[in-house]
Structures are given as C-alpha cells and as structure tokens.
Amino acid sequence: MKKTILLLLSLTSISVSAATQKPNIIYILADDLGYNELGSYGQKNIKTPHIDALAKSGIKFSQHYSGSAVCAPTRACFITGQHSGHSQVRNNSAGIFKNPASKKNPAGEGQYPLERGTETIGKVLQKAGYETCAVGKWGLGGPFNEGSPNKQGFDHFFGYLCQRQAHNYFPTHLWRNEKMVELDGNEGGKQLLGKHYAPDLINKEVLEFIDKNHKKPFFLYYATIIPHVSLQVPENDPALAEYRKQWPDEEPYTGNRGYIPNKTPHATYAAMITRMDRYIGNVVAKLKEKGVYENTLIIFTSDNGPTNAGGGGASYFNSAGDLRASKGSLYEGGIRVPFVASWPGKIKPGSESDHISAGWDMLATFAEISGEKLKSKTDGLSILPSLTGKGEQQVHDHLYWELGSQQAVRKGDWKAYRRSGGKVFLYDLSKDIGEKNNLAGKEEKILAEMTELFTSSRTDHKDFRDPAQPRQKKTKKKKGKK
C-alpha cells in the first residue's frame, strides 16, 4: 500500500513538474529558402511533408519578413531584436573588421562580430533558466572574439562559425564551441562529395542536445545551411534518386558562375530541401520520444528569399511565387519568407495569420514566453497573441530594411523602395503583391510620409555605408604616355 502511494505521489510530482516547466523553444532557420518552396505554401514539385505537418498542426503566417535579404544581417536582427537600420550588422561584408589568422584559426574565419554586452536572445533565455544551443551557421563573429556564440548567450554551439566555410557541405572542419573539429575524409575545395555531410552531423548534434537537456527548459536555434549553394547531397539519398527520375534530362550546372559543378542541379536542390524536411521530422520524433513535444514551440522560417546561384533554379521552381525579385533584393521576393509555428495545446491547428511580422520580433516574443523582461530597447513586438489567439496583438507602425544601397519601408499595405537615395517607388501590396505598379506619382502624401521614414527609421553605422548616399564610382587611373 505504501509503495502504491509513493508511486502515485511520484507520478503526480512528474506531472506537475511537466505542467509548470517553461516551454521549450526551437527556432529553425532555413538558408535561402523561398516563400513558395514548401508544400504548405504552394510548392508542387518539392516534397516537405514534415514541415507541412507542422503547419497543419499549428499556424502559417502569410506576411512574415526576414531581417534582411542576405545571411549575416538577418541573423543579427533575429538575435538582437533590432531591424537593419539599428542593428550592429547590416550586410554580409565585414566593413573594416577582419578576423586575424592564427594557429587556432588559420583561415581567419569569422564575420563582423556582435559587440560585448549585447542583449541577445541567448542571454535573455539563459537568465530565464534555459539551456541554450545554436547549431548550423552562425556568421556573427568568432572564433576567439566577442561575436562567438558562447559569448553571446549560447551554452553550446556546433557548426559553421564562418559563412564563407558554409559554401561547402563537405567541409574540412566544423566548430564545437571554440574548438575546431576536423572531418577526416572531406577534402573541401571544389569536391562535390566527401565522407561527412555536415547537415547530417548538425542534425545528430540537435538530437543529442535534446537527449541531454529535455528534463529542463531549453532553447535551440537550428540554423540549417540548406538549401544555400553549393548544391550537394549524398548520392544514396532516396529523394535524389526520385527527383532524378522526375527530371531525367535536365541540363548540368558547369560551375561557370562559381560554386561546385553538379550534373543534376534541380534534382539535387529538391533533394536537399526534402532531406532538411526529414531532419525536422527527426526533431519532432525525438521530442515525442522524450515526452516534451507537447511543451515545445517549434518555429520554421527562412533567412531571406531564394536564389538562382549555383544552378539551383529558383526560377525553375517558382521559388518566390508571385513575389518580385529574390535573395539580395529588398523587394518582396528577397525578404518575405515562410513562417510556420506549432505548439500543441497553445496554437490552434490549421490556423493562418496575415499579421505583419518580422525576424526582429522573436526576441520580444521569446522574452514574453519565458517571463523575462528585456533591458534594452527593441524594434520588435511580441507575436504571442497572434500565435495563441489570446490577448491583443500590437502592430508595427512600420517595418524598415536597409542593405547596401537599398532601403525599403512597409507601413500598412504600403511599401516603398529606393536605391542610393534616388527615386522612390511606391506599391500597394494589398492589390499588387508583385510590386509591378508604381503609384509614387499618384499618392504624393503617402509618398512623402514613406520617404521621411527612410531617414527617421535609421541610425548611422561607422562600418556600413549609408544607403541614402550615392555609390562612389571608381575612377580608372589614366595610363601615362610611354
């Protein structure tokens, strides 16, 4: 009888603990995945059953934006809650920063680093009692400087610290925290295949992290490098064989525009996305195995729009759908991205939202979920009410982006775009999602308001150029007479 009572008390204790534990948070960031490259968003040729299942069990946003149109600034916006007019990192270029080569870091790896003392998602959730982990592509500094993930709020890191290294899926090494992990059997360079497929190793690390930390709240930032070029997937991938049958006569990519040549680029590209989808299925299965799926918020999105680089074929797959342009552009095709969230018991299955949100909203959202207050000013707004359908959702007055010589502003249904401080183009996205009809000449009052936001929405940055200033044309030196 006593044993029975003790067992019941023990089970009750476990039940209460599970019910009161803060929710786990998993944020999955694809690399160069377009708005129209998931089945749940209309893709017909590439299979993504596990991500589509998350959308079916949760919510799909139709107007979510990345922080920028390229890798590093998007990641900075997400990590710090600042849009690209305020963030520390505003382009993939390193500005005046250069990470010096050393014995520990022979290639001088690492991009422009986040500063010491920056309030990041990792640090906020650490304070809230979360075990924090980042895997995949970092791109915000390190190794051995203040931008290292271990110095920016992450207890554990595994993957590519440097974006340049992430152009190869069979790299010579990865990083575990600040220790280089050699991958014997991978030659790097222009080799199409190797012994160790980095995304496999990264997915394995994710599953092991959940194994070790499922008894306490955890935050997992899963920055997969798929489907960023180069186009590489193991030859034994079943999806590759299936897609090759689907496109038996496709034209090879010769490597003429950089990146590694590939005989079946479209089949490989599709297989990479389907393999990524399979990784996400592994994560969901592991959460269920450990009994924490019900208490986990899973978000899947992308860092920017798609690209035709490396033979992948964003145009072939209609990867941006009806949106204009692609990666690198601040038109909709470069910054509007898929956003799917699943949270059993909290998010109504099969929900859809047209709430206008952005990557810099995640810091405020995760802080609210964890119960932690932010110390720094953020450009983001918590989207928890939109996710759960409870409470009043605050809306942005406007959203702002800058990248190189480009600027863009969205305010309500209006979108303004300009380059190098020049002519402003104005679009009504409620009627013109493809940004084809410039209304700047017809809506003078709105044009003036949007143009003023190009100036008031930003602060200057010493290492990144002001997009309102015209580009300096390089002058060729005249050759002297012989």
Account of the protein in words:
The protein has 482 residues and is α/β, with parallel strands linked by helices. The protein has 2 domains: 22-397, Alkaline Phosphatase, subunit A (3-Layer(aba) Sandwich), CATH 3.40.720.10; 404-456, Arylsulfatase, C-terminal domain, CATH 3.30.1120. It has helices spanning 2-20, 49-57, 71-80, 121-127, 198-213, 238-246, 265-289, 332-335, 362-370, 384-388, 444-456, and strands at residues 24-30, 59-65, 131-137, 156-160, 173-176, 179-182, 218-223, 296-302, 336-342, 351-353, 357-358, 399-403, 406-411, 414-419, 425-428. Strands 1, 2, 3, 4, 5, 6, 7, 8, 9, 10 and 11 form an 11-stranded mixed beta sheet that branches. A 4-stranded antiparallel beta sheet has the order 12-13-14-15, with helices on one face. A hairpin with a 2-residue loop joins strand 5 (173-176) and strand 6 (179-182). Helix 5 (198-213) packs parallel to helix 7 (265-289) and helix 6 runs antiparallel to helix 7. The protein is globular, with a radius of gyration of 23 Å. The N and C termini lie far apart (107 Å). The model is unreliable at 4-19 (pLDDT under 50).
Task: Give a quick precis of the structure.
With 482 residues, this protein is of the alpha/beta class. It has helices at 2-20, 49-57, 71-80, 121-127, 198-213, 238-246, 265-289, 332-335, 362-370, 384-388, 444-456, and strands at 24-30, 59-65, 131-137, 156-160, 173-176, 179-182, 218-223, 296-302, 336-342, 351-353, 357-358, 399-403, 406-411, 414-419, 425-428. Strands 1, 2, 3, 4, 5, 6, 7, 8, 9, 10 and 11 form an 11-stranded mixed sheet that branches. The chain has a 4-stranded antiparallel sheet with strand order 12-13-14-15, covered by helices on one side.
